[in-house]
Design a protein that fits this description.
With 205 residues, this protein is mainly alpha-helical. Helix content is 69%, strand content 5%. The protein has one domain (18-204): Up-down Bundle (Rhopdopsin 7-helix transmembrane proteins), CATH 1.20.1070.10. It is built from 7 helices and 3 strands. It has a 3-stranded mixed β-sheet. It is flat and about 60 Å long.
Length: 205
């Protein structure tokens, strides 16, 4: 009989807050819900302020609004699922949901890093070349830099996610986090993970 990939039958268990007593569980739920709402509304306020105020339509604030949007998406990738798991005491997450979560976590975390790098470059130009700043950092260049950040982030996360899809998971996988973290998922696989490890190290560098 040929060995087959049982990936579609696998179930991932998120063990992040599985050992908590009910009182502690409700406290953690309340704290994370408050922090999540503060993050969402704080970033939405930044985005709305930049859109409404024409004086803020400058490269620095355009990058900042994109960073705020990425932060909203990043926290929304993990926290809602975690809150549901805490409230229902259901630790299960399907294979498809876990891989999707890995993809978006990679995409948005890398996007954050690149946007911060672009913002640092913007401040460098503003300080070192103040008279040429508006020529160098025009709206077209800002758009191209933001587009480059998105493209590189998407390609990086697609590569790493596709490498996870090639792995086989023969039994239930227990992940000691409240979300699907790439390294934990990879090292729970039954198949060889050497290629995954090499690509993860190269991508990190």
């Amino acid at each position: 009989m040929e060995p087959r990939n049982d990936t579609q039958l696998s179930e991932f268990l998120l063990l992040g807050f599985s050992e908590n007593q009910p009182q502690i569980r409700f406290l953690i739920f309340g704290l994370f819900l408050c922090m999540y709402l503060a993050t969402i509304f704080g970033n939405l306020f930044i985005i709305m302020a930049i859109i409404v105020d024409s004086y803020l339509h400058t490269p620095m604030y355009i990058f900042l609004s994109n960073l705020s949007f990425a932060d909203i998406c990043f926290t929304s990738t993990t926290i809602p699922q975690m809150l549901v798991n805490i409230q229902t005491q259901n630790k299960d997450i399907t294979y498809a949901c876990c891989i999707t979560q890995v993809y978006f976590l990679l995409l948005l975390s890398v996007l954050d890093v690149f946007l911060l790098t672009v913002m640092a470059y913007d401040r460098y130009v503003a300080i070192c070349h103040p008279l040429r700043y508006m020529i160098i950092m025009n709206i077209r260049r800002c758009g191209l830099l933001i587009l480059a950040c998105w493209i590189i982030s998407v390609l990086n996360s697609l590569l790493l996610s596709f490498l996870v899809l090639r792995l086989s998971f023969c039994t239930d996988v227990e992940i000691p986090h409240f979300y699907c973290e790439l390294n934990q998922v990879v090292h729970q696989a039954c198949s060889d993970t050497f290629l995954n490890d090499i690509v993860i190290y190269i991508a990190a560098m």
